[in-house]
Amino acid sequence: MSLTIITPDPARWDSFVNTHPRAHLLQLCAWGELKAAFGWTPQRVAVTNPAGELVAGAQILFRRLPLRLGQLAYIPYGPLVDWTDTAQVHAVLNAIDQVARQYGAVFLKIEPGFHLPDVDFAAFGFKASAQTVQPPRTVTLDIRGDDDTIQARMNQKTRRNIRKSIKYDITIRTGSAADVASFNALLDETGDRAAFGVHVPAYYERAYNLFVPAGRAALLLGSYAGQDLAGVMVFALGEWAWYLYGASSGQERQRMASYGVQWAGIQWAKAQGAAIYDMYGVPDVEPDELEAQFQDRSDGMWGVYRFKRGWGGEVMRSVGAWDRVYNPALYAVYRIGSKFR
To answer: What is the CATH number of the domain that holds 162?
Structure first.
């Protein structure tokens, strides 16, 4: 079967992503627009079958490497392809290669995602990379069933803290565009308190404007006596939802506002039809090590793991990052430089 390379328009691409078995938020055009406002250049490429139907493709993000080494080509949670169909994989990689070379890419980094344990990426010309962009390990919650069923999967402390947030008069509201400023203030406070990296305020404003009006996300804020104490920004597509951004104040922590807004995020995701709630990022170590060390460590992602583990999810790991090299000499320079950064 012959496959044809095309550059799909945004509406057609998003329609394809929405219905693909491996659909992911980070492959939507809106995500490309978000990254375009902060130094990346998105480009979409796809292949069609003889009937003109899109069967595979990718949204590629390009960014200039340091020291004028050239461009990085990056595909988060893609390409969207049937990895068991060798002909389809080769066709879409050929399409990606053409675009990447047009942009002068030194190499292509892909992070294909979860549930691909048997794919031999090396056989398709990739090298395993320890340098990931997205967190390779996460906690996912099963949010099917009624509220009692979902909460029964959580540990006792988390259920108790959700109830405390109600008992201690935490008010949950759906934030408007004007509330992003309050969310940004909480993010700044969280970043300072936990040595946690956050984007510039304009990033979250742009994310809100791209995803919330389209029904793909919600900003939820928990307050007491008119003061916002915690907030989450949650996204959804198909059966998956993602808790990408969250923040809390150091004030009135006994009121458990973080638990109230997280529970509200789960309920919002369920209302969108999601069955899986991805808490997006925990330390990249094996589950037994996570359990052995979480009470003693607070560096890096360990603090958030203590919070996330209580929600009763499953620790999952993606297949990580894989690099496809176009310029071996510059790639070697990049690898050396990366070790010193």
So the answer is: 3.40.630.30
Can you state the angle between helices 10-19 and 29-36, rounded to 10 degrees?
120
Chain mean pLDDT for the chain = 94
Each residue of 29-88: pLDDT tens digit?
A: 999 999 999 999 999 999 999 999 999 999 999 999 988 889 999 999 999 999 999 999
Same domain membership, residue 143 and residue 34: no
* 120 CB-near residues (< 8 Å, 6+ apart): none
Q: What is the 3-state secondary structure (H, E, C) of 159-210?
A: HHHHHHHHHCCCEEEECCHHHHHHHHHHHHHHHHHHCCCCCCHHHHHHHHHH
Let me know whether 42 and 151 are in one domain.
no
Q: Are 262 and 325 in a shared domain?
A: no
d(CA 40, CA 74): 10
For residue 196, CA distances in Å to 82, 84, 340 come to 36, 39, 21
The residue segments making up the domain with residue 67 are 4-134+319-340
Query: How wide is the angle at C-alpha 271 spanned by C-alphas 143 and 225, nearest 5°?
Result: 95
In this prediction, residues 218-227 reach a mean pLDDT of 97
- Going by their DSSP bridges, the two strands 217-224 and 227-237 should be labelled as antiparallel
Let me know whether 72 and 177 are in one domain. no
- Is 130 in the same domain as 146? no
Tell me how many domains the chain contains: 2
Same domain, 95 and 190: no
Q: By mean pLDDT, which of 1-15, 188-202, 284-298 is the weakest?
A: 188-202
- Cα 324 from chain centroid? 22
Omega cis (within 30) before 21: no
